[in-house]
Design a protein that fits this description.
heterodimer, A: Alpha-Beta Plaits, three-stranded antiparallel β-sheet, 5 strands, elongated, B: mainly alpha, two-stranded antiparallel sheet
Chain lengths: 200, 439
């Protein structure tokens, strides 16, 4: 970081009335009281969760909601993951455990023999999704995630693939992925424009 | 998916008729029993109620029970108001409109594991919640709830009984003394927890209490000079007699008292002692279960005491224009006065809650600056002015007092407008930061 990158934000000069606090307090009270008595607005905004769900009333963007994970399948129905360990490296909560094996298919070198995610340790930050070179791991809009034991909440490969089957209707696999690594589903290449404005 | 049985129970509890029926079924046997046995103990109860010593005590017991219930309801009200200000609905799952929520909260607190950490100072750790709660509750003794009453069965020449438990000469000084004892609970909790964040919380509470006792004392001194008495019942009687509440005489003194009351109760915007974001809960971090609940109760009881005090001193207590005054000692008038008093207290509690959900917390230096550079000088000037007015015999002249208050307020504005901006934050004349200078 360079000195010229540091922005020094000056606190705005307060007027005498603002420094007396009282007019500001009354102003704030007016705002909160308006909200207290806006019954109509409240009835419109609030959805009461177990009976009504956000996605049902269209109040949730399913495309970027970060719920439970899934492991995508490629068009041939094989697991898309190439066991590169990028996600488990990127994971700040260390909740992804992968065991790689030699791939039985000719188009890639490795595939995950085991792929476990501890959904209780996960903080749902989406870094794994960002890190994945083949867009194999993704977060889905499913958020109702319960279990009776801790062991039950460690999702293995089969479970994650099953979640893909369950959720591919509401969130189709992103296509094309940013790489064309073999047959993992990529049909094209899409490279983001480099951001020239950004200072490093 | 909700479990259907759970959903059915929830729906049943949310039916208001079920709630009313349950209350009726639970209270009916007790009422029936009391009515059936009335010939045996009726005379005794009437005697107790007519006794000038026992009636105030019984009334006090009644008020105490009411207040303990009210604190539970206050917590519901607080959560409701919090919800409403944020366009939410607040708790509404337990019972009709969430009315059984206090019960659910209480049960939860009772059944939670009561943890005493290994390295705490055990004695003080156990003592602190009691020390927090007790002062908040014994303050009510001097509140003149509803004037005096003469029951229909009392002989005509008997003196009416008072609805005030203790009529003390020291009056609201007692309330001040007891109220500031409450901070011991917080300080000891912070100290005994053996946790640096709790300790910070306790220290902050102490510093805050010391700072805000002063403007509070000054405001009350202004009132004392105006009223000439420390007895709350007499102050209320004066306001009821003239029909002019003291808030019309001394709005500034009332504002000082109100602000200090916020600080005394340790509530937002002065809740630095518990500041969740900075101190992970402050003094009550290490407390769990019922001991935590006691701190909670203490805060709300403190709030009710503070409101009751302000109503008595500045808002005419049980007085309201057009309603029967102190001379009417029938029990109907007494109930009316009690209703007026309680309504005023409820309005104040509403204000406390609205303020909490409106204003962000002060920083500690801001807190100190407000107390020492804002409220204290204003209080001193106001006190001096009131003293001059009192010496001239104008202490209860509305226009003289109002002029004084407005003048002090204008002076504050002028002073604040001309004074230099306090130095906070990063200043432009400091050398620029160079984070990357290491390499």
């Amino acid at each position: 970081m360079r000195d010229e990158d540091v922005l020094i934000v000056q606190e705005p000069e307060l007027t005498a009335a603002e420094r007396l606090y009282l007019p500001q307090i009354f102003d704030g009270l007016r705002t909160t009281l308006r909200h207290v008595f806006s019954l109509k607005r409240r009835a419109q905004i609030v959805c009461e969760y177990p009976e009504v769900k956000r996605e049902e009333i269209g109040a949730m963007r399913t495309s970027n909601y970060r719920g439970v994970h899934r492991l995508n399948k490629d068009p041939d129905g094989r697991v898309a993951c190439v066991a590169c360990f990028m996600c488990s490296t990127a994971c700040p909560a260390h909740c992804i455990h992968i065991e790689a094996g030699e791939s039985p298919w000719p188009d890639r070198e490795k595939y995950p023999v085991r792929f476990d995610i501890d959904e209780l340790r996960c903080i749902y930050c989406g870094m794994c999704e960002e890190a994945c070179p083949v867009d194999a791991i993704e977060l889905t809009p499913h958020y109702e995630l319960v279990g009776r034991t801790r062991q039950e909440m460690i999702f293995d490969k089969a479970k994650l693939l099953q979640i893909y089957e369950e959720t591919k209707a509401i969130k189709p696999r992103r296509n094309p992925p940013i790489t064309d690594y073999g047959l993992t589903g990529g049909q094209g290449r899409e490279v983001a424009e480099p951001n020239n404005e950004r200072k490093i | 998916m909700i479990d259907p049985t759970v959903a059915r129970i929830e729906r049943l509890l949310r039916n208001p008729l079920v709630l009313i029926a349950a209350v009726a079924v639970l209270t009916a046997p007790a009422v029936l029993l009391a009515w059936l046995l009335w010939p045996w103990y009726g005379a005794f109860v009437q005697g107790l109620l007519a006794d000038p010593f026992w009636f105030p005590l019984l009334f006090m017991l009644f008020v105490l029970v009411m207040i303990l219930n009210a604190t539970a309801l206050c917590i519901l009200a607080e959560r409701k108001i919090a919800g409403f200000t944020q366009d939410r609905r607040g708790p509404n799952r337990v019972g009709f409109w969430g009315l059984l929520q206090p019960l659910a909260d209480g049960l939860k607190f009772l059944f939670k594991e009561d943890i005493i950490p290994a390295n705490v100072d055990r004695g003080l750790f156990l003592l602190a919640p009691c020390l927090a709660l007790v002062p908040a509750l014994i303050g009510f003794a001097i509140i003149p709830w509803a004037g005096e009453v003469r029951w229909p069965w009392m002989p005509a020449d008997a003196p009416p009984v008072s609805t005030q438990a203790a009529s003390l000469d020291v009056g609201f000084l007692y309330l001040l003394a007891v109220g500031s004892l409450g901070v011991y609970g917080i300080v000891l909790a912070g100290y005994a927890s053996n946790n640096k964040y709790s300790f910070y919380g306790g220290m902050r509470a102490t510093a805050q209490m010391i700072s805000y006792e002063l403007p509070m004392g000054l405001a009350l001194l202004c009132l004392l000079m105006t009223a000439g008495s420390l007895r709350p019942e007499e102050i209320v009687a004066q306001q009821a007699g003239s029909g002019v509440w003291y808030v019309f005489l001394h709005p500034l003194a009332f504002l000082l008292l109100l602000t200090s009351a916020f600080a005394e109760t340790n509530r937002a915007p002065f809740d630095l002692a518990e500041a969740e974001q900075e101190l992970v809960g402050g003094f009550h971090t290490e407390y769990s279960s019922m001991k935590f609940a006691m701190f909670f109760l203490a805060e709300y009881a403190h709030m009710i005491t503070g409101s009751a005090l302000m109503v008595a001193l500045f808002f005419g207590g049980w007085h309201f224009w057009g309603l029967p005054g102190a001379a009417d000692t029938s029990w109907v008038a007494m109930l009316l006065r009690l209703t007026v008093y309680v309504t005023k207290v409820v309005v104040f509690i509403g204000l406390f809650m609205m303020i909490r959900w409106t204003i962000p917390r002060f920083r500690f230096d801001q807190l100190m600056r407000i107390a020492w550079l804002g409220m204290l000088p204003a209080g001193v000037v106001l006190l001096a002015g009131t003293a001059v007015l009192a010496a001239c015999g104008l202490a209860r002249n509305v226009w003289a007092c109002l002029t004084l208050n407005v003048a002090v307020l204008a002076g504050m504005l002028l002073y604040v407008g001309r004074s230099r901006r306090p130095v906070t934050g990063r200043q432009p004349d400091l050398p620029p930061v160079s984070v990357g200078a290491v390499s």
